[in-house]
Amino acid sequence: MANCKRCGRIYNRLRRDICPQCVHEEEEIFLQVRTFLKNHRNANLQELAEGVGVDPDIIVGMIQDGRIILRDNPNISYPCEKCGKPTQSGRLCAVCSAEMVRDLQIASSELSAQKEKSHKGKGFYSR
């Protein structure tokens, strides 16, 4: 049992953080968004939200979840969660994503070096 994160109702949680009724509502919104985007390729996020009649955050959530792909809609963007620059996919812009990958690679190599250093000199090798 869990509370729906959108409406607060109690429901039997299986997969998602929202109740079946909200899942159904979200699916209807998704179909409306998809239809609107097909007919208005140059709309921006605000125009899309107003045209469908939903909060822009719901649309951004669908984009971040990968349900909506914006390759044919160049004017729709939303702020990167780290730096605030406009992005069209995921939670981070391309620059912040590349920076995160680089930082993770550095951290991984440091951990590998520490692991190798800590095992050096312990035990022996024989043939």
UniProtKB/TrEMBL annotation:
Domain of life according to the entry: Bacteria
Organism: Alicyclobacillus tolerans
Domain Transcriptional regulator HTH-type FeoC: 30-86
Entry keywords, A to Z: Cell projection, Cilium, Flagellum
InterPro entries linked to this entry: Flagellar_operon_YvyF, Tscrpt_reg_HTH_FeoC
UniProt protein name: Flagellar operon protein TIGR03826
